[in-house]
Design goal:
By secondary structure, the chain is an all-alpha fold. It has one domain. It is built from 7 helices and no strands. Helix 3 runs antiparallel to helix 4 and helix 4 runs antiparallel to helix 5. The N and C termini lie far apart (31 Å).
Length: 151
């Protein structure tokens, strides 16, 4: 959905196995931007586990359990109870977290962008492409900052 982000991801070969850490860092950054929209404390715990893994304070085996847990929690989310769809921000945020932990950075970015826009204006906002532009610009800038420098 974010064409500039997708171009940058291809350019830096984000999906290459050697770039797993960059994918996790980028997904984490995107998911952190929607942390305040998450409704389930267990999803927040999964997000925090990603941060701990990146810091090196939890082992891979523990992190792998959190990856599975985040996916299960996102798939079990009850959805929106609000008439304007603002509650969908939590659903999208949960999927952003699950994808961030799974190393699916571009998917995490997409869900995070939806969460931000839903949180700002519900259904009406997501129909307006321009509502996404500030988040899209931030995402490109964030990923560019994680890109390894070429000397």
């Amino acid at each position: 959905m974010n064409a500039a982000l997708e171009r940058l991801a291809r350019e830096i070969r984000l999906d290459d196995p050697v770039n797993e850490r960059m994918r996790l860092e980028f997904g984490y950054a995107c998911a952190l931007r929607v942390k305040h929209l998450l409704e389930d404390p267990a999803v927040v715990e999964c997000l925090l586990a990603l941060g701990h893994f990146l810091e090196g304070s939890i082992p891979r085996s523990r992190f792998d359990m959190d990856v599975q847990r985040a996916s299960m929690l996102a798939n079990q989310h009850q959805g929106s109870k609000s008439i304007d769809g603002c509650g969908h921000a939590a659903v999208s945020g949960s999927y952003a977290v699950a994808n961030a932990l799974a190393g699916k950075a571009l998917q995490a970015a997409d869900y995070a962008a939806y969460a931000v826009v839903y949180g700002q204006g519900g259904y009406g906002a997501v129909a307006d492409r321009e509502s996404f532009e500030p988040e899209f610009r931030w995402q490109v800038s964030c990923l560019a900052s994680l890109k390894p420098s070429t000397r």
